[in-house]
Design brief:
The chain has 111 residues and is an alpha+beta fold. It has a single domain (2-94), classed as Nucleoid-associated protein YbaB-like domain (Ybab, Chain: A, 2-Layer Sandwich), CATH 3.30.1310.10. 51% of the residues lie in helices and 16% in strands. A 3-stranded antiparallel beta sheet has the order 1-2-3. The longest helix has 31 residues, at 64-94. It is rod-shaped and about 70 Å long.
Amino acid sequence: MKNLGNMLKSAQQMQTKMAEMQARMEALEVEGQAGAGMVKVMLSGKGDLKRINIDPALMVAEDREVLEDLIVAAHADAKQKVEAMAAEEMQKATAGLNIPGGLPGGFKLPF
């Protein structure tokens, strides 16, 4: 029974830390860039697109495909940063908690 009590206590601690982590992630904004900063994409910590900033020099009809590629690249850059931050936050949230078997398989952030 002592192990069950410890497991429940660990689960409650984990739930509290996860809620705190979710709040921190939601408040974060992460910028991704491409084309030496000519295209910037801002994502929330949950991966939602917030805004795009495009250098006016790229607003030429002939460069449309280049611009499209830069937007995709900037988004990928920002998404990678969000995932890295989420992994770091998860590590902080689970530090010191004794979770038998670790986190459930397939657990992925952002939420």
